[in-house]
Design a protein that fits this description.
heterodimer; A: alpha/beta; ABC transporter transmembrane region fold; Rossmann fold; four-stranded antiparallel sheet; 21 helices; B: alpha/beta; 2 domains; 10% strand
Chain lengths: 582, 577
């Protein structure tokens, strides 16, 4: 990660503030006003002090006038200081909100390939934790930046106004701060990057171990997991101590530079006062200004480290944002509203890894209403067919056609809505049972939902749940069993009544008695509907119109159960091996 | 917060020396304005340039000394805070590892992760800040007040009035904002949850074209989170302006009353300047205190969330009996066992009795929710029976050392989960010291040798996190090998061949039967074909044992089993099998 990248990432974060320019202007104005007023204080105080030379030489009237003005200035200054914080708050929170939403939205537009290949824990970490880091960095950055700029310019003007020579001295000494800042920043940046990547490793590991806690326990892996965790944690400690130490010396270092500037101004100021060039009150004002002038510089060093953490986090987030989206639907893409259910795969070629050819020259033709069972050994490409049919992945060559139209020429959403899909890995989201069933049709009436649940044979168990259809499915859906989850997934499809079906080993975890009923329901649903079933169940295979026997990415046999058995080929062996142990 | 204090004990040295050096720095800082007073009142008054230079040199020397002291302090702060954070993470992870599944469920994985990472980070920051500022800020405030008392007691009354006002402001702002911080954290958890759901449900979401709806859902919670953050921002934004206002008004008072003191000859001009300087120093210290307050409020919220985790004690406690004393009458025995999940109204397992002999293969079949998974989870004591006893080798599982108990048992879970690392590392989960031969034997039985050898790195090939680079069937076979490599006395297969094709499934069962003689095998399945070869079959129905017997017995006598058979096999096959 070089300097250029850091700058780019930083500029990119800033580009997200554009919609909130009003807050930027508000913050800047508030900063200028509050700083200007704050800076005016020392002058007034200095003047007041000059009016009290010694016993019997105090001008009460003059002091009173000055104090009145001072009071008003202080109050107005405080109000603008408050406005400044309000503006930077809104600016920061809204900016990071946009970044966070964009990152999340990205997850929904990238090709599935990306999501399949990334650790989910790491992704969550980016969207939750990294965004918080950016937020903290920006908050610090904005506040310090606005007041900093205003303070530096303001104090310079006031100092020049009091005494040009001492002002020049202060300006000449300023680069010291910069030198210190850049020295420290260089050291900390790489440490912070290392720290946040180690943190990513750690949370990835926690996710793995806690998420699979039953396995950890049954294998007595706790001790080993702990050792490995402590090892990563130890690495985090090593880099953490270094990163924290280097970043934490910024303030003391800046204070040190300030102390030197303060002392120099004090010495020169005192000598100038002796020579009578300036008054004692002016020396007092000057000391205050010198302090205030250098503060933004020392704050900058602190902010720089904070910003570095933010930029490191932003870079991790931007790497998500920079992923390429799925190829957009072309503007003249067809919106499919109905289909006969005629599907053709013409010379389809596809591989996950370009170096390892997988599906080659695949041809399937499915008539409307056909029930197609796909069977074959593990890894033969059954799931891949689903990925291609649903256009989760795009074919490399050839075409998949619905009613003779290439699916790449249809809008993805309309094409996918032609299919009802039930996968082996059930997925429900944390919402009520009703909302989960009505997922594909949010405006469904209660009657429709219940009807679908009844068809999927889920109604009975739902009724037995504590809150019936209003039961909230907890985070991982652990309050209902795996089979019940699958019933809900089936009900979800039942409700939308799609023209075609894709079932991926869908019924493998449902108990057999329910399955009989589910099969009946499916049979009704499948009537006149083209369906693809990846199945291991004999009953499903036996009822199929066509069985596609796959091996190593190719269809090696097609036909119905009876034909294939008679053929005495691969399917014959596969089928017979089921009873090999008996 | 207090509860976590004793974890800080290891860092006593840092906790004493760190603040001490910070204190030294603060003392030097406090002396500087005094030196300035001398420069003005002595040097300038007497036009003594050499005195001014001497004193100026002293100020610079003080700056150097202060810098050195603070470097030492920061070093200690880094060691103590990072050390504490590292220790807390280790303790939390270890503690969570003792949880049973029910306890993990109560929190959910995402929030446990944020607690180990984010919340510990907050505490870490608080510790660092504590060491850096705990002495410094109050010392600067109190020190400044004492200094001013020393210069002019009457005028210092202004300080004595201003300080309590400032602390009241601090208290009020803090008090108002704490509940908000908790709320924000909760909303952040929700953001994490939705992200997680979105990632795991990508396929379903896209199949239903619900991307927009999910984005909308995320949008809403994020807006909500932002709104709450801005809301609390409004309150905490009051802190600085209000304290500064108080301090500035105090300065006005100093100037006004200072004028009177100078007039009466009680004070010099230089002393009034010093007063104003000390007030300025208090402003700076106060700003830091305010930061400290914000950090501590967050830390308190985080500490609560961490304590919530640490307060949950697992109910699975080691028994003290030694496994050596085992009898061999029956390998596994369920005696009048009942089990209900937390908050469930019904028992998942009701009055189950079964004796399983050493070396026997038992099939478990039954409807969804009939209690199959619960039944097998009771064996390695992932849960404790609510009533009745589960015995292994004649000894109640509760009396075992949990580790020894689980050593006897190899489980192949329903969901084939593998871990980031090489294939061999994954297999070694089952037996840390497994040799090459043992691993290859396990792979053989699990029917995984062929595909593992087909990989470029063979057994040293990497499995990615979540094993996304393997197919379902490949994962399942590796989980089987993982269970076999420990040569368990009891092998439990929880519906673990669902992603295997018929041929592989059959070959697998055959290999297990031949290669693991002497092991007791429990096979849970939905497929009759998988369990029908077992010595006996346990039929579960709604938590009860509806029948125990061989395939032939059950298909004649047991209604439930008969129905299952008919749904899966043709009439002819039922008759001839």
């Amino acid at each position: 990660m070089n300097k250029n990248n850091t700058r780019q990432a930083f500029m990119r974060i800033l580009s997200y503030t554009k919609p909130y320019r009003l807050y930027v202007v508000g913050a800047l104005l508030s900063a200028i006003i509050s700083v200007a007023l704050t800076l005016f204080n020392p002058i007034l105080i200095g003047r007041a002090i000059d009016l009290m030379v010694g016993p019997g030489q105090v001008d009460y009237n003059g002091i009173f006038k000055i104090i009145l003005i001072l009071g008003v200035i202080i109050i107005i200054g405080s109000i603008f200081q408050w406005l400044l914080t309000l503006c930077t708050n809104s600016l920061t929170y809204r900016t990071v909100k946009d970044i966070r939403i964009e990152a999340f939205n990205k997850l929904n537009t990238v090709p599935l390939k990306y999501i399949d290949s990334k650790s989910h824990g790491d992704m969550i970490n980016r969207i939750v934790y990294d965004v918080e880091m950016i937020s903290e960095g920006l908050m610090q950055g904005f506040t310090q930046f606005f007041t900093g700029i205003a303070t530096i310019i303001g104090t310079l003007i006031f100092m020049v106004y009091i005494d040009v020579w001492i002002a020049i001295l202060v300006v000449v000494l300023t680069p010291l701060s910069f030198f210190v800042a850049s020295f420290i920043a260089k050291r900390t940046h790489s440490l912070f990057t290392e720290q946040s990547s180690t943190e990513g490793d750690l949370s990835g590991y926690i996710e793995e171990m806690i998420g699979n806690q039953k396995i950890v326990k049954t294998f007595n892996y706790e001790k080993r997991a702990q050792d490995k965790f402590e090892k990563i944690n130890g690495q985090l400690y090593d880099v953490g101590v270094k990163a924290q130490f280097y970043s934490s010396i910024t303030r003391p270092a800046a204070r040190f530079v300030n102390a030197i500037i303060y002392a120099s101004v004090g010495i020169i100021g005192a000598v100038s006062a002796i020579s009578g060039r300036i008054s004692i009150g002016q020396v007092s004002s000057f000391l205050i200004y010198a302090n205030q002038y250098t503060t933004p510089f020392s704050e900058v060093t602190g902010v720089v480290t904070q910003l570095q953490t933010a930029v490191a986090s932003a870079q991790r987030l931007f790497s998500v944002l920079d992923e390429e989206d799925e190829i957009q639907d072309s503007p003249d893409a067809i919106v499919v509203t109905e289909t006969d259910g005629h599907i053709d795969l013409d010379n389809v070629e596809f591989s996950y890894d370009p170096d390892r050819k997988f599906i080659q020259n695949l041809n399937i033709s499915v008539k409307p209403g056909d029930k197609v069972a796909i069977v074959g050994p593990t890894g033969c490409g059954k799931t891949t067919i689903i990925n291609l049919l649903m256009r989760f992945y795009d074919v490399d060559k050839g075409a998949i056609k619905i009613d003779g139209v290439n699916i790449n020429d249809m809008t993805r959403n309309s094409m996918r809505s032609m299919f009802g899909m039930v996968l082996q890995e059930t997925w429900l989201y944390s919402a009520s049972v009703r909302d989960n069933i009505a997922y594909g049709k949010p405006d469904a009436t209660d009657e429709e939902v219940i009807r679908a649940a009844k068809l999927a044979r889920a109604h009975n168990f739902i009724e037995r749940l504590a809150d019936g259809y209003d039961t909230i499915i907890s985070e991982d859906g652990n309050n209902i069993s795996h089979g019940q989850k699958q019933l809900l997934c089936i009900a979800r499809v039942m409700l939308v009544e799609p023209p075609m079906l894709i079932l991926d080993e869908a019924t493998s975890s449902i108990d057999t008695m329910t399955e009989v009923r589910v099969q009946e329901a499916f049979t009704t649903l499948m009537e006149g509907r083209t369906s693809f079933v990846v199945a291991h169940r004999l009953s499903t295979i036996q009822e199929a119109d066509t069985i596609l026997v796959m091996d190593a990415g190719n269809i090696i046999e097609t036909g119905n159960h009876k034909e294939l058995l008679e053929k005495g080929g691969f399917y014959h062996n596969l089928y017979n091996s089921q009873f090999a142990t008996n | 917060m207090r509860k976590l204090m004793h974890y800080l004990e290891d860092f006593k040295k840092e906790f004493i020396l760190g603040p001490f050096f910070k204190f030294v720095e603060a003392v030097f800082e406090l002396i500087v304005p005094l030196v300035m007073v001398r420069i003005i009142d002595v040097g300038v008054k007497n036009s003594d340039v050499s005195y001014v230079l001497k004193m100026g040199g002293l100020m610079i020397a003080l700056g150097f000394a202060g810098f050195a002291a603070s470097l030492i302090c920061q070093r200690y702060a880094a060691i103590a805070s990072q050390g504490f954070g590292t220790k807390m993470r280790n303790i939390l992870f270890e503690h969570i590892n003792t949880f049973s599944h029910a306890e993990i469920d109560r929190f959910g994985t995402p929030t446990l992760i944020t607690r180990i990472t984010n919340d510990v980070n907050q505490l870490q920051l608080a510790v660092a800040m504590f060491i850096r500022l705990v002495v410094r800020s109050p010392f600067l405030v109190i020190g400044s007040i004492i200094m001013t008392m020393y210069i002019d007691f009457k005028l210092s009354i202004i300080f004595l009035i201003a300080t309590p006002i400032i602390f009241t402001i601090l208290y009020l702002v803090m008090n108002k904002s704490i509940p908000y911080f908790r709320l924000i954290q909760k909303k952040l958890d929700k953001i994490s949850l939705i992200t997680r759901e979105n990632l795991s449900g990508t396929r379903v979401i896209r199949a239903f074209s619900k991307q927009e709806a999910d984005m909308e859902r995320f949008h809403e919670i994020t807006e909500d989170h932002t709104a709450t953050s801005i809301e609390v921002g409004k309150i905490s934004a009051l802190l600085n302006p209000l304290t500064q206002l108080t301090i500035n008004l105090a300065i006005v008072a100093i100037v006004w009353f200072g004028g009177g003191r100078v007039d009466s000859g009680a004070m010099t001009q230089g002393q009034v300047i010093a007063f104003v300087n000390y007030m300025a120093q208090i402003i700076l210290a106060m700003v830091l205190v305010a930061n400290l307050v914000v950090i501590f409020t967050r830390a308190v919220a985080s500490a609560d969330r961490i304590n919530e985790v640490l307060d949950v004690k697992t109910n699975i406690i080691d028994g003290n009996m030694n496994a050596e004393q085992a009898s061999t009458e029956s390998k596994i025995e369920f005696k009048d066992v009942f089990f209900a999940y937390e908050n469930a109204s019904q028992h998942a397992i009701k009055d189950v009795n079964i004796k399983i002999k050493q070396g026997e293969t038992i099939g478990v079949i039954g409807a969804t929710g009939s209690g199959k998974s619960t039944f097998i989870n009771l064996i390695p004591r992932l849960y404790d029976a609510s009533k009745g006893d589960v015995l292994i080798d004649g000894i109640n599982v509760k009396d075992y050392n949990v580790k020894e108990l689980r050593q006897k048992i190899g489980v192949v879970p329903q969901r084939a989960a593998l871990f980031k690392g090489t294939i061999n590392e994954n297999i070694r989960w089952g037996n840390e010291e497994a040799s090459e031969e043992e691993i290859s034997k396990a792979l053989d039985i699990a029917q995984a040798t062929e595909f593992v050898n087909g990989l470029s790195q063979k057994g040293e090939s990497m499995v990615s996190q979540g094993a996304t680079n393997l197919s379902g069937g490949q994962k399942q076979r590796l989980t089987i090998a993982r269970a076999l490599v420990g040569q368990p006395e009891i092998l439990i297969l929880d519906d673990s061949a669902s992603a295997l094709d018929f041929a592989t499934d059959a070959a697998l069962r055959k290999a297990i039967k031949e290669q693991t003689k002497g092991s007791t095998v429990v096979i849970v399945s939905q497929r009759v074909s998988t369990v029908m070869g077992a010595d006996r079959i346990l039929v579960l129905d709604n938590g009860r044992a509806a029948g125990i017997g061989t395939h032939d017995q059950l298909k004649e006598e047991n209604e439930v089993y008969k129905e299952i058979c008919l749904s899966q096999l043709s009439e002819e096959e039922v008759a001839t099998s």
